[in-house]
Amino acid sequence: xxxxxxxxxxxxxxxxxxxxxxxxxxxxxxxxxxxxxxxxxxxxxxxxxxxxxxxxxxxxxxxxxxxxxxxxxxxxxxxxxxxxxxxxxxxxxxxxxxxxxxxxxxxxxxxxxxxxxxxxxxxxxxxxxxxxxxxxxxxxxxxxxxxxxxxxxxxxxxxxxxxxxxxxxxxxxxxxxxxxxxxxxxxxxxxxxxxxxxxxxxxxxxxxxxxxxxxxxxxx
Amino acid sequence: xxxxxxxxxxxxxxxxxxxxxxxxxxxxxxxxxxxxxxxxxxxxxxxxxxxxxxxxxxxxxxxxxxxxxxxxxxxxxxxxxxxxxxxxxxxxxxxxxxxxxxxxxxxxxxxxxxxxxxxxxxxxxxxxxxxxxxxxxxxxxxxxxxxxxxxxxxxxxxxxxxxxxxxxxxxxxxxxxxxxxxxxxxxxxxxxxxxxxxxxxxxxxxxxxxxxxxxxxxxxxxxxxxxxxxxxxxxxxxxx
Lengths: 220, 240
Fold this sequence. Notes:
Chain A is built from eight helices and five strands. By secondary structure, chain A is an alpha+beta fold.
């Protein structure tokens, strides 16, 4: 989706503002939102990472830009809990379970949280897939504008680069985000010269590397 | 496909409603941030603390989450992971050429070697900076970041200014970080759009030849491992 989240190459967003001695979380609620997100996501199913990213991308653009990072997450979480039937808007508003609603057993214990805190479910898949490109081969990022989720940024579409490395087989976010299967395929590190991306004013030396899936690329 | 499109529209409509409900925007009392982050935190929800507390309490009462599990995760990220992890890897690579070779060849395995074996699932890649090559890392689409090695990303890394400009104007961005690179230095920007996670192996600073591995690790800053700074002889903790 050509959303506001796809920011590479946009201009006039202002200077990069850095905070000295920045804390991990700026308020305790941010930490709680982060932890809730981790624990809820560990339940699997439709709580997959790609679907989460796509939901956040689909926040109304003005809200996306206005909100802080964890505000987006909290907003998403509320919507998700309601859409999965885990909670009703009224319950979320009051913080109290509806009368007669059952009580589950938390799937993630503190022991399991300790085990998983620093682990990510890998997106690498140990399945055979045909590699359409080899190291050193020129490749062009396809000019495509899907309305769903994609990890092919706008600024690189239609541009020619060179495959520098085959990183192996990974699940494909464009389908996984929509629960249409993992469609595992090769992922390549592709180098694009700054000149190819940005024109003559760019440095002749500089370049941008992206990890792109087979389906994003076409032969030159 | 049509079915799926309908669903995504529904999701969007719902998110619109949720955005309106979750945060009463504009005029809320400031609470969470302030200071240098006003730019990014200018609209603060009116009562985020209460709303999040209510949600947590609801989910605990429903048996969907265990409060102690939440505490463990917050504590892990506040006290147990951070740039110190990455700094240990960098310092080891500086003092041990064989380790450095393994690190550049297969970072995931080399990182596991030095006591981070339980940090599984990240496909790590280490990028070596040198006098004529400078690597820097961004995620233009969201906030992908090697958090097992560096902790959670700083606000600026997730901000629109950095995400938008790092790929089109890396030299300008680096200048704002106080790093002026000569024209003959090649800049490689790595846009982490997939599930590969990058850390930069910065150059070992001149004058550090006699330092121990531990002392070297203390020099390595978070920003130097993102590629927006170099390492000098000022310990990371004493930098402004």
